[in-house]
Amino acid sequence: xxxxxxxxxxxxxxxxxxxxxxxxxxxxxxxxxxxxxxxxxxxxxxxxxxxxxxxxxxxxxxxxxxxxxxxxxxxxxxxxxxxxxxxxxxxxxxxxxxxxxxxxxxxxxxxxxxxxxxxxxxxxxxxxxxxxxxxxxxxxxxxxxxxxxxxxxxxxxxxxxxxxxxxxxxxxxxxxxxxxxxxxxxxxxxxxxxxxxxxxxxxxxxxxxxxxxxxxxxxxxxxxxxxxxxxxxxxxxxxxxxxxxxxxxxxxxxxxxxxxxxxxxxxxxxxxxxxxxxxxxxxxxxxxxxxxxxxxxxxxxxxxxxxxxxxxxxxxxxxxxxxxxxxx
Length: 328
Ligand SMILES: [Zn+2]
What we know:
36% of the residues lie in helices and 17% in strands. By secondary structure, it is an alpha/beta fold. A hairpin with a 2-residue loop joins strand 10 (204-209) and strand 11 (212-216). Helix 7 packs across helix 10 (282-297).
């Protein structure tokens, strides 16, 4: 029997910058403690260890102008350039072999004025809702240019918040054009939607024009690691509780098992801030345990794939991926 693809989405990542600190008001965790503005490089080294040891694959976002604090090429306000370059170097050498790298558009904070590089007054998702292909194409082009300058190939984007959702056709057309302009790639993926608890949920073809294609890859498993940010708890009991929500110790329960029973692809979604747990890094311990359990119980049924592999499978078998899965 053919194995079911399993993949992990990691959103909101950037060197040092905690996107919630810069895009949230008030700057507090869900349980009311102050958010930390920066995460240590130890977090990316830990993630790389997990990726290499457990063979997990997926999609890793880089927010190229995170928090409107600068950019990944010229550096960020208040952050030692050597340190942010070390973060990027680790992603390039140790995450990139297993994960598709994509821009999470530009700032995940305020929209960017492309002429000046300065922040506009509006959040970039809210800004996007009033745009069309003529303004979205240069905006997404800038995101790909930064990712390319940092030494990464890319085949898609992640939408900060619900970026583009109210003008999705225009967003699809702009993404396809921007990717082709910067990289010459004809097939693009994007992550915007979630399809939890839906039967047979898989990626779908969102847009086709000439010989180009845009594929929507939805998340099907909730970010249970998120809760590690919103509690002062850091113990093994919390790590086990979070891991159980994905897959129980005996491999028989949890959301991943439920999605497989529904005939869906398990497409896990977490966030850089979830893994960093407001500096405590408890989320990384939970991810390590989830990866260990998946590999112990499920490798006869599932195989880890990157988003690029998933994209390739969809475009080479288009007729199997034309159903747009609705929300359950
Ligand atoms: Zn995000």
